[in-house]
């Protein structure tokens, strides 16, 4: 088969890649102090890019970070202040402690350059004029990133290719490197969110998502966790099944900015929201769910509660709730209290 193997959701592709890299590695590498097993030149295609979260108790995907990162990209940001709150480990990648470099993909794609429009807006305009175009490419990795040998943050994303075909927006992602256990899931989450956002701006249905990787690897440091994930997948009687909802067609730049205003108020603990307040906000229910995640995270980080507000947890989409209960002990505790 010359096209990429097909999966409906990211979970199946993630598990098969973990198996490939750990059981049949092609190479052993040790780049920048990270010993890893590697396969080169791999790809997969998702038929439903909305199914962008894995439901594995051993992997504990964090939907709060996933949405924060996707919004950080869509808003064209590169500040550590926002993203470091959700992923403290990203602080190590910042050269100056203030901004991210190559991995701030949103800054490269969505922020206007001087008087010119952003790369993203330029490609949307091109595709509105010529949908069959093959030029809808959004390059991210830049050769100049290699000038400094000590650069701690060289973009792993080479580029995203938008292809409107037959009323649907397909996307092909090219990564120079992907950490299969740590990077792949959040990358696929955010890039498929960018794809869905682009489809809405172009007035198209969501098409397929194809992910290609130059160096696909599993670091030795994560080998134990990867084994536990694979054991869970092999031994569970049935995989949990949740359907991730569609982004509302009304979503535009102003919507992202509006959600991020709530995010900032909750991150800085200036405001605290009840469930009733969130459901009365002038936002589509889809984006209200994201605000709920930010409020739950505020309760965990700022209030340091042993158990989050059970009503708020109960108001979450079942798939998001399943993940939050596995990721955060304060959510697990609230769920136990609710069922007593
Ligand atoms: O030495 P190098 O720059 O390739 O190290 C970056 C590491 O972060 C690699 O393991 C790469 O696969 C992983 N990574 C990822 O998987 C990094 C980023 C941030 O650019 C990402 N996905 N989005």
From TrEMBL:
Segments crossing the lipid bilayer: none
EC primary class: transferase
GO cellular component term, pick one: cytosol
MF GO annotations: thymidylate synthase activity
Keyword Lyase attributed: no
One of the GO biological process terms: dTMP biosynthetic process
Enzyme Commission number(s): 2.1.1.45
Thymidylate synthase/dCMP hydroxymethylase domain sequence ranges: 13-242
CDD domains: TS_Pyrimidine_HMase
Keyword tags: Methyltransferase, Transferase
Keyword Nuclease among record annotations: no
PANTHER family per UniProt: THYMIDYLATE SYNTHASE, THYMIDYLATE SYNTHASE 1
Protein name: thymidylate synthase
Organism: Streptomyces canus
